[in-house]
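Sample log: Putative acetyltransferase.
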Amino acid sequence: MERILIVGAGGHGRSVAESIELRGNFQIAGFIDDSYPEKKQVWDYPVLGAVEDISVFSDRAESLVVAIGNNRVRKALFGKAKASGFMLPSIIHPAAFVSSRAVIGEGCCIMAGAVVGTEAVLGSGCVVNVNASADHHCRLEDFAHLGVGVQLAGGVIVGDSAWLQAGSSAGYGVVVPDEANVLPCIGLLKDCVTCKV
């Protein structure tokens, strides 16, 4: 069975680990996290070292997932992992629904209860968190992040590294700019021009 490393041993990393366990298509080789050496184990898995040492662990696993919620950090570590020769599979919880006509980039994390609709497109390194949904023809650019319970109507475009926090929503065809930070429970009814960080 192919081995995988998980970068990030916090809440998101552990949730991704459970998704991997439930899917059963990878053997978890361990975590990489900056809490090392204070933290040396999560459940039955070792914490092997700090994130700056990603390239050192290329002999431990063929694949790697960057399970860190912060978009900028995830993007930087994604690039480092790719340069180190790791494969970056997308991790999809078995209780998520992803349309067979959706396009999912590499290294995405789609969590329990999430929905990705018909002909939606996710770039690389995106997160669709628990119970979030991206309806038909939505487009998430690289490293976009839908927080818990975010709801996107059809045709929404979420820019590179944008973050819609828990419970927020966007109406049909709304465009959310790159690196936007949409606060929890905000409803966007038109293009978001004032939410850029």
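Observation: The chain has two domains: 3-89, 90-188.
Observation: The longest strand covers residues 27-32.
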